[in-house]
From TrEMBL:
Classification via SMART domains: NDK
HAMAP family attached to this UniProt entry: NDP_kinase
Protein name: Nucleoside diphosphate kinase
Annotated keywords: ATP-binding, Cytoplasm, Kinase, Magnesium, Metal-binding, Nucleotide metabolism, Nucleotide-binding, Phosphoprotein, Transferase
Main subcellular location: cytoplasm
Compartment list: Cytoplasm
Gene of this entry: ndk
Secretion signal span: none
Residues annotated as catalytic: H115 (pros-phosphohistidine intermediate)
Lineage of the organism: Bacteria, Pseudomonadati, Campylobacterota, Epsilonproteobacteria, Campylobacterales
Cofactor names: Mg(2+)
């Protein structure tokens, strides 16, 4: 069993599609092992996306991720990291395959509905960033 971190981003929370996105995961064999709604501080968002610190879009990414509440989740299942990325679709919703979360709920490369860990190693670090062991079951 693998675990990965998912974030429902501020655009999707504001649109009221938390339930529809959670349904995509549960209907495709990913269990919700932990879940919390929070508002990220600029410090949190900057640390979480530290790998992108030098990228030109970093400021906008932090602005966007702190613009409203998000839902952070641990998803658990076989091949969870890759399966979650498949369900999410491409970063730019215009390039996301039909039926993916980003194709159906995202509007732009910034407001792209969800985050998902991109490797098992990063998943472990991202899960620890938000959750204690006792929060996950
Ligand atoms: P995420 O980390 O949020 O799951 O997204 P991702 O792996 O599909 O994409 P990544 O390359 O990690 O980029 C993180 C977020 O930064 C924004 N971005 N903007 N303007 C741009 O060229 C650009 N590239 C990336 C996106 O919102 C992306 O989700
Ligand atoms: Mg990424």
């Amino acid at each position: 069993m693998e675990q990965t971190l998912s974030i429902i981003k501020p655009d999707a929370v504001a649109k009221g599609v938390i339930g529809k996105i959670v349904d995509r995961f549960e209907s495709n064999g990913l269990k919700i092992a932990a879940m919390r709604k929070i508002k990220l501080s600029r410090e949190d968002a900057g640390k979480f996306y530290e790998v992108h610190k030098e990228r030109p879009f970093f400021g906008e990414l932090v602005d966007f991720m702190t613009s409203g509440p998000v839902v952070v989740m641990v998803l658990e299942g076989d091949n969870a990291v890759v399966k979650n990325r498949e369900l999410m679709g491409a970063t730019n919703p215009k390039e996301a395959a039909p039926g993916t979360i980003r194709a159906d709920f995202a509007q732009s490369i910034d407001a792209n509905a969800v985050h998902g860990s991109d490797s098992l190693e990063n998943a472990k670090g991202e899960i620890e960033f938000f959750f204690a062991k006792r929060d996950i079951s």
